[in-house]
Amino acid sequence: MKTTRILALGMLVITLNATNVFAQGASTAASAAVSIKTANRALAKSVRRTLGRTKGLDPTRIYVKASNGVVTLSGNLRTQAQIDLAASAASAVAGVVSVSNRITIFNEGDN
Question: What is the mean pLDDT of the chain?
Answer without folding.
Answer: 83
